[in-house]
Amino acid sequence: MSDERKRPIDREKYRRTARNFTDKNQSAEEAENQFEFTRSREEQREFGADNDTYDNREVHDAAEDSEKDSNYRTVKEQQKDSGGGGFKSFLLPLLAGVIGALLVLGAYLLFTGTDEEESAEQQTGEETASEVDSNQDLSEVKQQLEEENADKVITDTTAAVQKAKPAVVSVINMQRIQSIIPGINTTSDEAEEAGSGSGVIYKTEGDIAYVVTNQHVVDGAEEIKINLESGDSVDAELVGSDIWTDLAVLSIPSDVVETTIEFGESSNLLVGEPAIAIGSPLGEIFSGSVSQGIISGLDRSVPVDLDGDGSIDWEASVLQTDAAINPGNSGGALIDANGRLIGINSMKIGIASVEGIGFAIPVDEVKEVTSQLEENGEVTRPFLGITLQDLLNVASSPVYDQLQLPEEVRGGVIISGVQENSPAAQAGLQELDVITHLDGEPINNMVELRQHLYYAKTAGEEMTIDFYRNGEQQSVTVVLE
Questions:
Q1: Which domain holds residue 398?
Q2: Which of 9, 103, 195, 297 is the most buried (most CB within 10 A)?
Q3: Does one domain contain both 410 and 362?
Q4: Is 437 annotated in the active site?
């Protein structure tokens, strides 16, 4: 491992600011890195004590050598004191030593052969157990596992995991790293691992297989590698990504894919149902890890800051679970008791005083977004053509006085810019107009405006906008693009 890989690098761009639920007692470095992991860092943490190990080994060997020398001197002294002893004293110990050696050798061969056979049988059993078709019913998977593993306890949870696990992969974000040596500005010739997460193989079509993961896992990647459960590693291509839903679709050759995951339905979930998370927490070193919990909440709204400016840009609608979701689990599978995909693990609350609050993107939304990403490489949403600012953010500034709003107006969105030739410009909207309603529905902030625009409308539709200009209420109709 090169020195450059051991040095910390700035990966702020690879993590999603929405996951910055930091604890006030954390240091800046801990807060910054709480959702980051690289294999180089884990290798250093895991194997950084090699020198100490070698030192202990050398001390141990020296002690053994000292003991051997002491024993050798004792034997020689005893022989010297005995004064000879004749031929018998030499022959009898020799014969006893030969016979003892033969007995030990025979016992070793006997037991070693048995262990090797058992090990081979166990390995064969494990390989057979892994060949589970995700399209099978859970009862069929469980029966197959019980037949192949008669000496093991097979539960419904075991069957669900074995059904889904082969479709869960590790996703490696590869980038060319810039040197951080002062005065030297160099970039590595080859892409190195800058971050990692998880992904789920959900579809094969001809010679292509599709993998869904989180957008923040592959953000900024120059190359992407997929590590399969079989141990194979393949290059992946980015088909498309969507920052608003934090989803991305990758493609890999289908000939390396053994199975795809079965989709469930998140709309039919109930609070308290079992939930199982599968992924690569802390990177490839713990790939295929499984944690179990329940569905703790449905339709949770989590504030998201996408551009890192400190203001909320979006509210993600997610499932809440207490199944352990750690850095590296992002993009992995959340499955139900039948081994079906019900969500894509996305984020957790990383405050030291909080435990067991993780979030996953509902599979119903995953289906819709992945379909558009496969077809267009992006999610098509209506376009209005304005930049926004929450009214509450300027409530105590001089700008608020310029708006001349009535006292009863407590919420809304200020237009801070209008793009030329956009639907908003064509409808006559101007800077400092304050939008309060869309299609008659109250709009209190930017999140509510975007959710109405993206979820309730489509391109080509008309939308009625109620707004205040210079203290007077007005209304216009725009045709969305």
A1: 386-479
A2: 195
A3: no
A4: no
216 is catalytic: yes
Tens-place pLDDT, residues 204-242: 999 999 999 999 999 988 999 999 988 889 999 999 999
How far apart CA 151 and CA 148 sit, in angstroms, is 9
Tell me if 474 is assigned to some domain.
yes
Reported as a single tens digit per residue, the pLDDT across 307-339 is 777 777 777 889 999 998 888 888 999 999 999
Q: How far apart are CA 210 and CA 202, in angstroms?
A: 6
Choice among 280, 289, 330, 346 that is catalytic: 330
234: left (phi over 0), alpha (psi -120 to 50) or beta: beta
**pLDDT for the residue numbered 5:** 37
Distance between CA 72 and CA 13 in Å, rounded? 65
**pLDDT (average), residues 234-254:** 93
Q: At what angle do helices 88-129 and 138-148 cross, to 10 degrees?
A: 160
Sign of CA dihedral 287, 248, 322, 14: positive
Catalytic-labelled residue, pool 40, 134, 198, 246: 246
Q: Which of these is catalytic: 216, 219, 322, 336?
A: 216
For residue 9, CA distances in Å to 36, 48, 181 come to 11, 19, 11
pTM over 0.70? The answer is: no
Q: How many domains in the chain?
A: 2
